Amino acid sequence: MPRKIYPNIKRSVKISGHATSVTIEEPFWNEIKDIATTKGMSLNALISEIDEDFEGNLSSAIRIYVLHHIKGQ
Questions:
Q1: 41: left (phi over 0), alpha (psi -120 to 50) or beta
Q2: For residue 37, which of 1, 30, 57, 66 sits 20 to 30 Å off, Cα-Cα?
Q3: What are the residue ranges of helices labelled H in the chain?
């Protein structure tokens, strides 16, 4: 069975009043958008919150956040 390839896609977001970009695979991007909608937040607001709570690379922080959310942590 062939493996599905999810390319990294660069996206612009605004966090804490400034523009930045994250490079993240489509499944993670779709999930973070769904989480923001469920929480009644804008995507930029949720990503700003993630940026405040995690140190290091923002793209990685989003992936970890999504993973924790899915696992119910």
A1: beta
A2: 57
A3: 26-39, 43-53, 58-71
Find, among 47, 41, 45, the residue nearest to 65 by Cα.
Answer: 47
Q: Tokens 């119910």, residue?
A: 72
Work out the mean pLDDT of the chain and round it to a whole number: 91
Domain ranges of the chain: 26-73
Q: Is the dihedral of CA 72, 36, 16, 57 positive or negative?
A: positive
Instruction: Please choose, from the candidates 39, 14, 33, 11, the residue with its C-alpha nearest in 3D space to the C-alpha of residue 23.
Output: 11
31/67 Cα distance (integer angstroms): 10
